[in-house]
Amino acid sequence: MTETTPYDAARARFTRQALARLVLCDHAADVADGAAGLVATENDCDTGPGGRVSQAFQLIELAERALASAVIYERERGSSWTEIAQYLGISPAEAEERFGVNLNDWNTAFEVPYRPDDTGRKRIPQLPTAAYDPAWACDRLDTWASNRLTLVNDQRPVSSGLVKAAPEEEFPSVTP
């Protein structure tokens, strides 16, 4: 039996492809914010030796997470391992080996939404936050994009392009 989550109804409004895209958006925003932190020079004197290297290294980690999310999104939208591998410059088998665990974790999270924490008293959601609570993610990312993307005139620049599972009127209003 699958456990329910407080956000099931909100999540049901979106296809798995849309949820994967939302996670990619969230991770891309993290990369952009991380990169922005390296642009200003005003606080360089407050950064200890190696501090900027630490920030740049963290940016690589954020980009790797965004890449894994992009692969999951591409698989959800029907891209083959061959198509994905072409852009990575590796073989399809290497792409599947590298990102198969991420895809498996993504798929498993829909079947087993929680895992117990180390104490066994709390349940930890398995889906990335943006997919677990898409209403929150849409609001946050629409605001993020509106504030940073100057050529975007859409009031909902992230959520308006997501594929819905069914028309809005088929779902009751959900307030987490």
In short:
This protein is mainly α and 176 residues long. The protein has one domain (8-170).
Write the layout of secondary structure elements.
Layout: H1 8-12, H2 16-36, H3 51-76, H4 81-88, H5 92-111, E1 114-116, E2 123-125, H6 129-132, H7 134-148
Antiparallel strand pairs: 1-2
Which key features would you list for this structure?
2 strands, 7 helices, 176 residues, mainly alpha, disordered C terminus, two-stranded antiparallel sheet
Write up this protein.
56% of the residues lie in helices and 3% in strands. The radius of gyration is 18 Å and the shape is globular. It has a two-stranded antiparallel sheet with strand order 1-2. The relative contact order is 0.19. The chain has one domain (8-170). The two termini are 23 Å apart. Helix 2 packs antiparallel against helix 3 (51-76), helix 3 packs across helix 5 (92-111) and helix 4 (81-88) packs across helix 5. The chain has 176 residues and is mostly helical. The chain has seven helices and two strands; from the N terminus they run αααααββαα.
Shape by Cα distribution: globular
Listing every helix as H and every strand as E from the N terminus to the C terminus, the arrangement reads: HHHHHEEHH
Number of helices: 7
The level of helicity is 55-70%
Terminal Cα separation, in Å?
A: 23 Å
